[in-house]
Design a protein that fits this description.
The chain has 344 residues and is an alpha/beta fold. The chain is 32% helix and 19% strand. It has one domain: Metallo-dependent phosphatases (Purple Acid Phosphatase, chain A, domain 2). The chain starts with a helix and ends in a 7-residue tail after the last strand. The protein binds fe (ii) ion (2 copies). One fe (ii) ion binds next to loops.
Length: 344
């Protein structure tokens, strides 16, 4: 079994536990893989005495994919065997009733739980009994969170005075600013493609299932302003704040590309992925924001924004990723559940 894990590590070019003396969590042979550990081991967890262990995942897409759900089960098994102090879910939790089912799935973990929704979590059908996408964002999902014991970060930050730390979060949204100028300059019919969220083949499903009286630019402006206000309020109470967003908080943790985006599909994807104003807000406070976590792209990547270290979590439909870090040591461990190379 150990050999199977090692072979996977070699094939993906990943690193096994570099410190064999470090206590390891439960292993799920061939399906669970610890891929990196950074810096020191942590002191005994003591949430209200200065230190915390925080687990972060995203894009669980609960109930959507058999392999993904098996991976999520393994992720939960590990958390149950070694509970963190705080679990953060970074959006795209589950469409329709799968959202509540996912909250129920982690409900018995003996830790604080907080989340932000993702774009899939706001998808609605015509005449949806839950209301439109804005009703979901402002009422239905927060209500589900209070029923299941989760902190809804888009509404209020989570302040942990004992650790001198806050968690501030937002779905974040897109206003096309990552690539609008280039779309206009380089893509014929750019306006039609943008209006219909239409790629060369197929459309972004947000065009079909995000239904609201708002629009992308107005919603982006609103959620960025709310996050800025919440971040300032949090930093007035504690020394540091972790930020978590669903759509990437800054371009460095957007979809990884070896070269700048080219052509309609890549430029449109950029337009529909993030915004420049969130990055500007975070840049202002980056020295007091140790970590920024995002999701949505299903591609893991790490980058810095001033003094802040940013990660895109990177789990996909068929496998999941989990980051665990210690505060205040800032030691980070990364885990993969399921096989990124096996889609079915
Ligand atoms: Fe997703
Ligand atoms: Fe998403």
């Amino acid at each position: 079994m150990g050999l199977a894990i090692f072979r996977c590590a070699a094939r993906w070019g990943l690193q096994r536990n570099p410190n064999p003396k470090r206590k390891r969590g439960p292993q799920h042979p061939s399906l669970t893989l610890r891929v990196s550990i950074e810096t020191a081991s942590k002191p005994q967890s003591a949430l209200y005495h200065g230190s915390m262990r925080i687990a972060v995942t995203a894009d669980l897409h609960f109930g959507h994919n058999r392999l993904g759900d098996e991976a999520t089960q393994l992720l939960r098994d590990q958390l149950q065997a070694r509970p963190p102090d705080l679990l953060l879910l970074g959006g795209d939790i589950g469409t329709e009733d799968h959202f509540g089912a996912c909250l129920q799935f982690f409900r018995d973990l003996p830790c604080l739980k907080a989340l932000i929704p993702g774009n899939h979590d706001l998808w609605v059908a015509a005449e949806d009994r839950r209301g439109d996408s804005l009703d979901l964002y402002e009422k239905h999902l927060p209500n589900l969170c209070s029923v299941h014991g989760y902190h809804y970060l888009d509404r209020t930050p989570l302040i942990v005075p004992g650790a001198n730390l806050a968690v501030v979060g937002s779905i974040n949204w897109y206003d096309y600013s990552w690539s609008l100028d280039r779309l206009k300059a380089e893509v014929p019919d750019w306006q039609w493609h943008l209006d219909h969220k239409a790629f060369t083949r197929g459309r972004h499903n947000d065009a079909r299932f995000i239904r609201w009286k708002s629009d992308d630019i107005g919603f982006t402006r609103s959620v960025v302003a709310v996050l800025e206000r919440q971040l300032e309020q949090a930093l007035a109470q504690v020394e540091h704040a972790i930020v978590m967003t669903h759509h990437p908080a800054f371009r460095g943790i957007g979809f990884p590309r070896p070269a700048p985006a080219q052509g309609l599909d890549a430029l449109l994807w950029e337009a529909l992925s993030g915004n420049l104003s969130m990055e500007a807000v975070l840049e202002k406070h980056a020295e007091r924001v140790p970590f920024i976590f995002s999701g949505h792209t299903h591609r893991d990547i790490e980058a810095t924004l001033g003094g802040a270290r940013g990660w895109n979590i990177g789990g996909d439909y068929h496998f999941k990723r989990l980051l665990e870090f210690d505060w205040p040591t800032r030691a980070v461990e990364t885990f993969i559940f399921g096989d990124p190379n096996k889609r079915r």
